[in-house]
């Protein structure tokens, strides 16, 4: 070891001094010498509201939800030669040479030319004496009990063309059912199970109280898997998906797939708020956009089906279209609401009451009509022979009219034709340009209206879809037979301070109204 020489401390002395100094420093900060404690960061913890469980709802409603299996009589592709002919425009098998292998095969197993066909001539395929094919599964969907005595609700498209129906309960019990009635316009159907037992059933909710964003639980039979539960929220209300005049669907984002049709969508009280009916899907599977028939629509239809197997609806008998802002402005209407009458059907209740093309129906029994769909739903919800008061916007003012509704179930079977006004006065002898509209017109061959012979591609008329070959029958609800008639009506519209005029356009597919800008220069 090194010792102190020439007054300098040794290495040993230096180490001792360092140790003592370190101990003193530790005692100064802690008071007592001891082990050093390690420090750890606290884990992330977030306090959030508890998400509700759907288990109680599912436990309560599952016994009321069923799978629906549909069987139909399968018809043969051809019944020629007792179902054994394969004559695709050429010779049948019975005309083949005797040594042909197919001829020998069918001769051995009872095909054409074997004599066996005559023995079964009084039978249908596979020996069915009624001439119908065998029952084969053709569809499957979902449904639910709405009464303890066995009434079941499902979709019409599930049971359509069915000959036999089987419902499978959540415990696997299979029961035969019969079709009570169906309604194609709302895509609803009712089945009935006749057995000596009481069923667990569910009831419809008051869907006027539901809001976008509310929870929804869907129970059904996707892809034939049996009872399956999914959840989501109500995404929108009042959806029109183009399936019929009474479209008023709830849109939900719960997973709904093929086989869920006819199944219920529940609120958290276990009440049915809608019946799952359709999905939007580019791929055929769930993408989070499903549509359900609202309980308010289903209740009345189902009651009618249970009562007498059909639905009776009021019938007005007028072709209608929505009122756009341009159309409202062209007719001097303050708001773009109501239903524009394109044409009343001849002999219909609306025609008899004096409703005319170009009228706008703005109210029904004092209640404002929002749009054409709203009018269709309200009229359809009324009983035939009901008297209703309509408010019409005609000639720049409102006027009432009383109509006795017909019966849609019977009246719509007969195709009424639209009356035409054959005013032929004042026809010019050649084409004439309506430069302010970008149109060239000529007298119509039948003398009613003006044929459009040319459309300026840069005009407002072209932008709104007018084409050569179509016909202008009226402007601002006044019949026209010449370009001069049109110019006169447009001149009056300008004096009235209007920037648009309403044109009725006749095509091969029917009639429609279009509002066009008027040249203000």
TrEMBL record:
Gene3D superfamilies: 2.30.42.10, 2.40.10.120
Any Pfam family: Trypsin_2
Keyword check for Hydrolase: yes
Gene Ontology MF terms in the entry: serine-type endopeptidase activity
Subcellular localization, as worded in the UniProt entry: Periplasm
Binding residue positions for substrate: 157, 187, 259-261
Source species, domain of life: Bacteria
Location of the active site: 157, 187, 261
Transmembrane segments: none
UniProtKB keywords: Hydrolase, Periplasm, Protease, Repeat, Serine protease, Signal, Stress response
Documented EC number(s): 3.4.21.107
Biased composition regions of type Basic and acidic residues, renumbered to the chain: 116-133
Main location: periplasm
Assigned GO CC terms: periplasmic space
Region annotation (Disordered) ranges: 105-141, 407-433
Domain PDZ: 305-371, 416-508
Family, as annotated: Belongs to the peptidase S1C family.
Protein name from the UniProt record: Probable periplasmic serine endoprotease DegP-like
Protein's organism: Agrobacterium bohemicum
């Amino acid at each position: 070891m090194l010792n102190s020489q020439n007054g300098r401390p040794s290495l040993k002395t230096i180490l001792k001094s360092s140790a003592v100094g370190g101990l003193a420093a530790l005692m100064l900060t802690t008071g007592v010498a001891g082990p050093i404690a390690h420090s750890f960061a606290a884990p992330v913890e977030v306090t959030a509201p508890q998400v509700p469980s759907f288990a109680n709802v599912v436990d309560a409603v599952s016994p009321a939800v069923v799978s629906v299996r549909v069987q139909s009589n399968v018809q043969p592709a051809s019944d020629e030669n007792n179902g054994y002919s394969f004559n695709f425009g050429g010779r049948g098998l019975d005309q083949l040479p005797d040594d042909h292998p197919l001829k020998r095969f069918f001769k051995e197993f009872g095909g054409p030319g074997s004599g066996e066909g005559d023995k079964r001539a009084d039978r249908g395929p596979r020996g069915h004496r009624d001439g119908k094919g065998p029952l084969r599964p053709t569809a499957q969907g979902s449904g639910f009990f709405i009464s303890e005595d066995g009434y079941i609700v499902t979709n019409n498209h599930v049971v359509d063309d069915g000959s036999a129906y089987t419902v499978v309960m959540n415990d696997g019990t299979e029961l035969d059912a019969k079709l009570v009635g169906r309604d194609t316009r709302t895509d609803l159907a009712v089945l009935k199970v006749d057995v000596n037992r009481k069923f667990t059933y569910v009831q419809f909710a008051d869907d006027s109280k539901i809001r976008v964003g509310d929870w929804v639980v869907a129970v059904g039979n996707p892809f034939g898997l049996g009872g399956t539960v999914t959840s989501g929220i109500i995404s929108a209300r009042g959806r029109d998906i183009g399936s019929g005049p009474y479209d008023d669907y709830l849109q939900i984002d719960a997973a709904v797939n093929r086989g869920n049709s006819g199944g219920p969508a529940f609120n958290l009280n276990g009440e049915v708020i809608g019946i799952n009916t359709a999905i939007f899907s580019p791929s055929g599977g769930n993408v989070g956009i499903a549509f359900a028939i609202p309980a308010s629509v289903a209740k009345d239809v189902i009651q009618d089906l249970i009562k007498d197997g059909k639905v009776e609806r009021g019938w007005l008998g007028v072709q209608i279209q929505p009122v756009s802002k341009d159309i409202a402005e062209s007719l001097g209407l303050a708001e773009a609401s109501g239903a524009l009458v394109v044409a009343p059907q001849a002999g219909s209740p609306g025609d008899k009451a004096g409703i005319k093309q170009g009228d706008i129906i703005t109210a029904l029994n004092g209640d404002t009509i929002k749009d054409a769909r709203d009018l269709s739903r309200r009229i359809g919800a009324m009983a035939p022979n009901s008297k209703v008061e309509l408010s019409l916007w005609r000639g720049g003012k409102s006027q009432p009219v009383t109509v006795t509704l017909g019966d849609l179930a019977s009246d719509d079977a007969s195709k009424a034709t639209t009356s035409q006004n054959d005013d032929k006065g004042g026809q010019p002898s050649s084409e004439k340009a309506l430069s302010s509209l970008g149109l060239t017109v000529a007298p119509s061959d039948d003398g009613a209206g003006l044929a459009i012979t040319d459309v300026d591609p840069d005009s407002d008329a072209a932008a709104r879809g007018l084409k050569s070959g179509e016909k202008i029958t009226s402007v601002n609800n006044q019949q026209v037979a010449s370009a001069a008639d049109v110019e006169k009506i447009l001149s009056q519209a300008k004096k009235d301070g209007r920037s648009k005029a309403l044109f009725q356009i006749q095509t091969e597919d029917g009639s429609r109204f279009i509002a066009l800008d008027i040249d203000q220069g």
